[in-house]
């Protein structure tokens, strides 16, 4: 019965993805299926509701963080924080370094904001626009951007996926970040080298100066606009709570928007809820977006996914699959099992959050070292989901930037990270 229900759920998800129907409908159907499963297993309605609430409760910090991220990204757009970075980056980019610049800039912005989707909708769009103006391959540029936006989504101190992993594994977020940084060094350097080498073969073109002109005329770009960014960096270095860091950065950005950019005070509530929507069409195309409403779809998906997690745990839905995973552990190592499991869960769930939660439920019991397991999740489930073309983790960002699906093949960093970690873990095991 368990496999049948998972099969039906996966089929409906794929139908929604390929037909363009909102994935939320499939998530709701899945909730009905798994809720009914519990009732068939002699669980009461009250018990099933409690299981569902326990799943949501485990992810409540993630949901609140999504809301704060929506507010912060809108404020950063209005205050000129993102525009400042884009303006000066556009002035130094040449066709030969565009791929490398796209990867590095998206890595930087995603690290600062902790959101892959937000980075794709801002810096990703700018980088793709610049790449197209220089006749750089859409596939290569899209791959560099996709890899960059998930660099920070994995290891930023304000990343919801990093926060989710620390919550699920009961580990310290900042200790996890240290381990992630060490694991990322070699894949990051190799990725930079590959993108730089590929960039040398790019057709000669010129940078799009119009972007800088438009931003320079609309915003008052001074060092003060980087203050909200500095707050994130300083607070993160001081290990301040993630939610407080986001709130402080957003509040600082509001002051910058009002005092430096002369943003109308009466429009601040609308800015936080609906996002930055300037009247200037060019600026709106480049910088418009953010706000709580921009994350509502993701919040809904995460909320429903959390219900699945609680139901699976309460009804022991995954018991049979856990036995299989326990046997695999001794054959392909714990990380190899986690990586393989994350591929399957990402393929079935079509989203990063549920893949992380399911992989944790399936593999957590077989990994007593929670700190090591947290790194395993970060180097598997977090980066595997964006590599599946039908997952919203890749489909949504690529749609934002107007890149083809084949760009998934050029997201070099996302492939290198789990491969390198698998090699390094096996090396350490043999050394011991």
TrEMBL record:
Na+/H+ antiporter NhaC-like C-terminal domain sequence ranges: 148-421
Keyword field contains Membrane: yes
Main location group: membrane
Subcellular location: Cell membrane
MF (Gene Ontology): antiporter activity
Classification via InterPro entries: Na/H_Antiport_NhaC-like_C, NhaC_Na-H+_Antiporter
GO cellular component: plasma membrane
Membrane topology: Multi-pass membrane protein
Keywords recorded for this protein, A-Z: Antiport, Cell membrane, Membrane, Transmembrane, Transmembrane helix, Transport
Residue ranges crossing the lipid bilayer per the database entry: 6-37, 58-76, 82-101, 108-131, 179-198, 218-240, 286-312, 373-392, 398-423
Signal peptide: none
UniProt family annotation: Belongs to the NhaC Na(+)/H(+) (TC 2.A.35) antiporter family.
Stated name of the protein: Sodium:proton antiporter
């Amino acid at each position: 019965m368990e496999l049948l229900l998972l099969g039906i759920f996966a089929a409906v998800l794929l139908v929604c993805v390929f037909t363009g129907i909102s994935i939320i409908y499939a998530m709701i159907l899945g909730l009905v299926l798994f809720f009914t499963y519990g009732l068939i297993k002699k669980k009461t309605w009250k018990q099933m509701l409690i299981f569902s609430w326990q799943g949501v409760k485990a992810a409540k910090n993630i949901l609140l963080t999504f809301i704060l991220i929506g507010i912060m990204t809108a404020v950063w757009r209005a205050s000129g924080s993102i525009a400042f970075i884009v303006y000066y980056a556009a002035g130094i980019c040449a066709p030969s370094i565009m791929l490398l610049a796209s990867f590095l800039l998206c890595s930087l912005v995603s690290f600062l904001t902790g959101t892959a989707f937000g980075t794709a909708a801002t810096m990703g769009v700018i980088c793709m626009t610049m790449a197209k103006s220089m006749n750089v391959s859409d596939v290569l540029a899209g791959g560099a951007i996709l890899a960059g936006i998930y660099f920070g989504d994995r290891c930023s101190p304000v990343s919801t996926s990093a926060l989710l992993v620390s919550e699920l594994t009961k580990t310290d977020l900042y200790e996890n970040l240290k381990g992630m940084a060490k694991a990322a060094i070699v894949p990051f350097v190799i990725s930079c080298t590959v993108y730089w080498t590929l960039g040398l073969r790019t057709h000669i073109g010129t940078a799009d100066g119009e972007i800088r002109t438009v931003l320079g005329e609309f915003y008052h770009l001074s060092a003060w606009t980087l203050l909200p960014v500095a707050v994130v960096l300083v607070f993160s270095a001081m290990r301040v709570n993630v939610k407080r860091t986001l709130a402080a950065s957003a509040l600082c950005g509001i002051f910058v928007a009002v005092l430096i950019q002369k943003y109308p005070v009466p429009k601040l509530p609308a800015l936080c809820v609906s996002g930055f929507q300037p009247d200037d069409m060019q600026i709106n195309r480049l910088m418009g977006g953010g706000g709580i409403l921009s994350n509502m779809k993701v919040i809904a998906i995460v909320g429903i996914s959390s219900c699945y997690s609680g139901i699976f745990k309460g009804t022991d839905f995954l018991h049979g699959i856990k036995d299989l995973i326990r046997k695999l552990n001794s054959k392909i190592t714990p990380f190899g099992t986690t990586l393989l499991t994350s591929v399957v869960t990402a393929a079935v769930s079509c989203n990063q959050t549920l893949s992380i939660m399911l992989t944790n439920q399936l593999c957590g019991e077989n990994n007593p070292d929670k700190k090591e397991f947290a790194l395993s999740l970060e180097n598997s489930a977090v980066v595997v989901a964006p590599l599946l073309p039908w997952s919203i983790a890749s489909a949504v960002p690529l749609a934002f930037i107007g890149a083809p699906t084949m760009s998934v093949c050029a997201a070099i960093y996302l492939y290198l990270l789990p491969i390198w970690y698998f090699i390094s873990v096996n090396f350490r095991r043999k050394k011991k």
